[in-house]
């Protein structure tokens, strides 16, 4: 097996391509959007497991360079009173989680793939696929072009076209009934001590924020409800400011002080995707298992998927065997994370510590952030 067509240049796509290259398999990334698309406000946290998976293919340095760490989580009750704090960085070698803008993460991963000689094609939206008699697979793109390979990897995110091509009856993503709003602001009145996430349990939602070394404060809010289509910055500011208005925390003031660097989204997940692969095509990342944002693990899972898939294709004879092993190694873990995140979303206004993934972020021994991939170990 020599050539892989990767559909999607988000997180799973470039990581899978880099891991395949390490495994001796040629890969090219095909991304629907033109280069440079931005997503205002949106940011991500990568936990120790995702960072370790990147390190397994020597791709963590570029992410560290563009992100900043958090070593402590502080908790405030709805009245603003401090509830306590705990470490996020690990006693057992677990790295401190790192925060960075989503568009920056996409960009630096694509750039790193390109730097390693992997072709990254933009403006290539997959619409269909064909399988050839010689065991090849052809991707058909919306611009009328096509590309041929030996396998097709669907890394095309939560609304994956590859998923529906694999299984037209595949379940659609499910709204979790929660809206997540992310914002950034530069305002000395609203900063958090270095390397700290400040988490606030509001009476009608959950709010978290951290301040980057350059003084920008990043915040997110999870509030119940589904956003109106086409909502803009004024809507998101008002939604969050109103949700936390009666509380004694700074959440409402921070939302109100945020400019246009703010974006909201209706949270969706995919609890179970029945078909992950056929003989030629396989799903990775959100295409296979999208999680609600509450556990902050979707990107880390996407990275893990790409590395494990490459190991399977490296070590096992025959694509069907490799795909079956990949699913065996990944499905249970991914669905467990999706279920955890869904439970956290359902308890949106629940008790302290039930609403935050960082409860598991203090070591490498636990199942969530302690997951490690040994690149040199053979898959059997
Ligand atoms: C509000 C919010 C906050 C989040 N916070 C976190 C967090 O803190 N930590 C964390 O780990 N995860 C977080 N997540 C989840 C994380 O963003 C996803 O799990 C992660 O982006 C999945 O990576 P992916 O590569 O599978 O998909 P994506 O990152 O969505 O990338 C898919 C790519 O495929 C492209 N594409 C789509 N369709 C096609 C097509 N037909 N042809 C070609 N290309 C196509 C898209 O343009 C995109 O570039 C959050 C999600 C949300 C919504």
UniProtKB/TrEMBL annotation:
Residues 3-339 form the FAD-binding domain. Gene3D superfamilies: FAD/NAD(P)-binding domain. The keyword Mitochondrion does not apply. Keywords: Monooxygenase, Oxidoreductase. The keyword Lyase does not apply. InterPro entries: FAD-bd, FAD-dep_Monooxygenase_BioMet, FAD/NAD-bd_sf. One of its GO terms (molecular function) is monooxygenase activity. SUPFAM superfamilies: FAD/NAD(P)-binding domain. This is FAD-dependent monooxygenase. It comes from Streptomyces luteosporeus.
């Amino acid at each position: 097996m020599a050539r892989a067509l990767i559909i999607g240049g988000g997180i799973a796509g470039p990581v899978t391509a880099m891991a395949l290259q390490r495994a001796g398999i040629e890969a090219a990334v095909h991304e629907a959007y033109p280069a440079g698309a931005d997503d205002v406000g949106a940011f991500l946290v990568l936990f120790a497991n995702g960072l370790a998976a990147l390190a397994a293919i020597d791709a963590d340095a570029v992410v560290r360079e563009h992100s900043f760490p958090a070593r402590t989580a502080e908790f405030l009750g709805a009245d603003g009173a401090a509830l306590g704090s705990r470490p996020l960085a690990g006693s057992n070698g677990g790295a401190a989680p790192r925060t960075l803008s989503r568009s920056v993460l996409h960009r630096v991963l694509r750039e790193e793939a390109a730097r390693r000689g992997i072709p990254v094609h933009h403006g290539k939206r997959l619409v269909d696929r064909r399988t050839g008699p010689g065991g090849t697979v052809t991707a058909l793109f919306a611009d009328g072009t096509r590309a041929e390979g030996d396998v097709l990897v669907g890394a095309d995110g939560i609304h994956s076209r590859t998923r529906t091509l694999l299984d037209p009856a595949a379940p659609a993503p499910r709204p979790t009934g929660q809206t997540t709003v992310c914002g950034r602001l530069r305002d000395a009145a609203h900063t958090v001590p270095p390397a700290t996430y400040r988490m606030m349990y509001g009476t009608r939602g959950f709010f978290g924020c951290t301040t980057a070394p350059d003084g920008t404060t990043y915040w997110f809010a999870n509030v119940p409800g589904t956003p109106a289509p086409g909502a803009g910055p004024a809507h998101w500011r008002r939604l969050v400011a109103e949700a936390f208005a009666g509380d004694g925390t700074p959440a409402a003031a921070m939302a109100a002080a945020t400019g246009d660097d703010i974006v909201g989204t209706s949270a969706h997940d995919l609890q179970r995707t029945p078909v992950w692969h056929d003989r030629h095509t396989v799903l990775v990342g959100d295409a296979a298992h999208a999680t609600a944002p509450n556990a902050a693990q979707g990107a880390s899972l996407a990275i893990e998927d790409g590395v494990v898939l490459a190991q399977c294709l490296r070590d096992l004879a025959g694509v069907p065997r490799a795909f079956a092993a990949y699913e065996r190694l990944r499905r249970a873990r991914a669905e467990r994370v999706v279920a955890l995140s869904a439970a956290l979303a359902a308890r949106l206004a629940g008790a302290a510590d039930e609403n935050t993934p960082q409860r598991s972020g203090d070591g490498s021994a636990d199942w969530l952030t302690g997951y490690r991939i040994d690149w040199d170990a053979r898959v059997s």
